[in-house]
Inverse folding.
């Protein structure tokens, strides 16, 4: 494949460097070879927007409406004939673009909306603003359209951001765009949050890479379909460095408490740095970005601390830890265990996996694959192709598998909750049967007895079953009775002697903002008020805690559609809209009223009871200890985006500055 790259790329600055591509010098055959690896729907849209050639958007080339099941059809379900014609036109267009000198693109192309509609078949007019926001062309539509210097030039107003993970970096960037003074407090030595902390073997995304990126910093050159932890952390770090965010982060500094002073309308934040020095500082508002899957959950197993070998949580995997030749026990079969087990099985002398509930697995053959060479070349040479590919992935997942987890009235089945859910269940079981036809014992143990969607569904390319089928691996389904100094004792009385115990037992997802002590108006303690049953208006604000905005808060988890970045950006942009309201109206504080708070939570609770995760009895991080689905958003992405696009000051009690 002759697709050499060279010459000077189009000059771009800051975050726009993510859009940087190289002029095309490949020969015709090299271009044709690259297009063979292309994702065609997004390539046609990108080329049409680039060149203005509407032949690329012909109806006969348009992908059919996405039909989500356990897997997605290649090329969006385009027919073989349509694919052949699409490739012919794409090659012809790229050659012509090369021969014209690879001119810089016009981000405001007249074909922009038509190209969007070409991909997003079935999207009504109500979707267009959201889709434009996600494509972010011709400009970043999530950026504040105001700056503090115009609204309140003489007012001192500072914001604290708690955490420098994905949400914290997004919040800081938006504050910078608005000209708001801010400080980011981060307990770790670098940005990244969970993507800095989780270094266990095999750690990677289970959301397609391009969809798992900021709308305002759309990376073109992801190396894999579902990239590894190191790549995600590098991406967040690069965003922090390409903006001014990094210079505003106070690293290795833990927030201990946040206390509101109603008389002064200020929050006092108490921190402790790496040298154990305690410091206090005041702020007008706070945006929390501490993450939902941040605090490891340790199982309540008798004797847990009596084990004399190595024992650690997957989220606290020791740097450089060598498993070679060791006898390893992994407790749990959730997302982290699912990645760890295949990654270490070939190195260990014995591997025992202790399972409580098997996961549902979605067929994903390309889960560990690199981006194909031709596709990678196109992403490096076709302007904005990465944006259109992200847009296509976003649209496919916009409603995602949400209809497949719907509780159907009158449905009578011991496991599934509706006919669509049953179809998904049968499709996943057939996928499992193909892998385990030679191991009926494992098939029985790995077949879930709860509805698909009630717990996090995992990406499967066959490595999980293959690992458990190895002769030195064993799946244990007997209940753990206790742990002693030698290993794990199960209910059948057997001692499983091991050298290492890995606790792949998830996170305290419902314990928002722990262990920070948060005291609001009149001494109101947030954690006492929540009493383990966390609630927030839009997942963002709580009565009695003025000017405090959460990202990744209660009922914001999009678990079968979209990604955590989507809900984080929604929360951040809502917080900026609220701060605009404070400054424009010369208000000192805004405190959400009880009625909208109650109405919102009642509606979302009712919505969650229409989904598999709301009615199933299986344990899951989606639900808190009371059995309430306190983490999940049960409606469409469009609805959450519209609710959070602008803060309605009518929902708040306001106090003048």
């Amino acid at each position: 494949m002759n697709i050499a790259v060279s010459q000077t790329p189009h000059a771009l600055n800051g975050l726009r460097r993510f859009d940087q591509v190289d002029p095309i010098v490949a020969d015709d055959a090299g271009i044709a070879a690259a297009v063979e690896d292309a994702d065609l729907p997004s390539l046609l849209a990108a080329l049409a927007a680039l060149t203005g050639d509407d032949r690329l958007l012909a109806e006969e080339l348009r992908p059919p409406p996405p039909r989500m099941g356990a897997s997605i059809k290649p090329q969006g379900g385009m027919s073989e004939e349509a694919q052949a014609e699409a490739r012919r036109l794409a090659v012809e267009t790229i050659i012509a673009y090369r021969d014209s000198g690879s001119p810089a693109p016009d981000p405001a192309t007249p074909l922009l909306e038509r190209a969007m509609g070409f991909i997003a078949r079935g999207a009504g007019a109500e979707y267009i603003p959201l889709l434009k926001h996600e494509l972010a062309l011709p400009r970043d539509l999530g950026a504040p359209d105001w700056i503090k210097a115009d609204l309140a030039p003489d007012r001192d107003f500072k914001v604290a951001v708690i955490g420098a993970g994905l949400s914290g970096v997004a919040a800081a960037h938006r504050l910078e765009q608005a000209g708001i003074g801010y400080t980011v407090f981060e307990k770790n030595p670098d940005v990244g949050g969970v993507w800095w902390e989780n270094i266990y073997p095999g750690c990677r995304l289970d959301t397609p890479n391009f969809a798992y990126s900021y709308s305002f910093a759309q990376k073109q050159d992801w190396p894999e379909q579902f990239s590894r932890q190191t790549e995600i952390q590098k991406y967040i770090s690069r965003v922090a460095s390409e903006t001014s965010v990094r210079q505003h982060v106070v690293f290795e500094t833990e927030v201990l408490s946040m206390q509101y002073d109603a008389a002064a309308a200020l929050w006092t934040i108490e921190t402790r740095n790496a040298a154990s020095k305690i410091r206090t500082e005041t702020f007008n508002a706070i945006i929390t970005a501490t993450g939902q899957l941040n605090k490891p959950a340790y199982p309540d197993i008798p004797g847990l601390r009596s084990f004399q070998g190595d024992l650690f949580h997957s989220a606290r995997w020791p740097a450089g830890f060598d498993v070679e030749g060791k006898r390893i026990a992994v407790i749990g079969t959730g997302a982290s265990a699912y990645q760890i087990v295949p990654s270490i099985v070939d190195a260990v002398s014995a591997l025992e996996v202790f399972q409580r509930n098997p996961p549902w697995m979605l067929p994903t053959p390309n889960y560990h694959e690199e981006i194909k060479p031709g596709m990678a070349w196109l992403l490096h040479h076709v302007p904005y192709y990465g944006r259109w590919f992200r847009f296509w992935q976003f649209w496919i997942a916009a409603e995602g598998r949400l209809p497949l987890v719907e509780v159907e009235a009158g449905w009578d089945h011991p496991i599934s909750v509706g006919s669509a859910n049953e179809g998904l269940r049968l499709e996943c079981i057939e996928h499992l049967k193909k892998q385990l036809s030679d191991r009926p014992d494992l098939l029985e143990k790995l077949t879930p007895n709860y509805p698909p969607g009630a717990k996090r569904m995992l990406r499967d390319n066959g490595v999980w079953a293959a690992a458990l089928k190895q002769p030195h691996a064993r799946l244990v389904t007997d209940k753990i009775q206790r742990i002693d100094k030698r290993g794990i004792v199960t209910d059948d009385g057997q001692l499983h002697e091991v050298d290492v115990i890995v606790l792949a037992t998830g996170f305290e997802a419902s314990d928002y903002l722990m262990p920070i002590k948060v005291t609001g108006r009149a001494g109101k303690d947030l954690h006492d008020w929540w009493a383990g049953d966390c609630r927030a208006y839009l997942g963002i604000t709580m009565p009695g805690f003025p000017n405090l905005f959460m990202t990744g808060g209660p009922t914001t988890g999009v678990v079968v559609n979209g990604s955590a970045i989507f809900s984080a950006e929604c929360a951040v942009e809502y917080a900026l809209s609220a701060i605009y309201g404070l400054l424009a109206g010369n208000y000192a504080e805004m405190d959400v009223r009880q009625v909208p708070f109650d109405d919102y939570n009642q509606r979302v609770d009712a919505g969650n009871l229409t989904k598999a995760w709301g009615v199933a009895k299986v344990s899951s991080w989606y639900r808190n200890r009371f059995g309430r689905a306190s983490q999940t958003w049960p409606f469409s992405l469009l609805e959450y985006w519209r609710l959070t696009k602008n803060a309605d000051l009518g929902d708040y009690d306001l106090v003048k500055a």
Summary: Residues 1-11 have pLDDT under 50 and may be disordered.
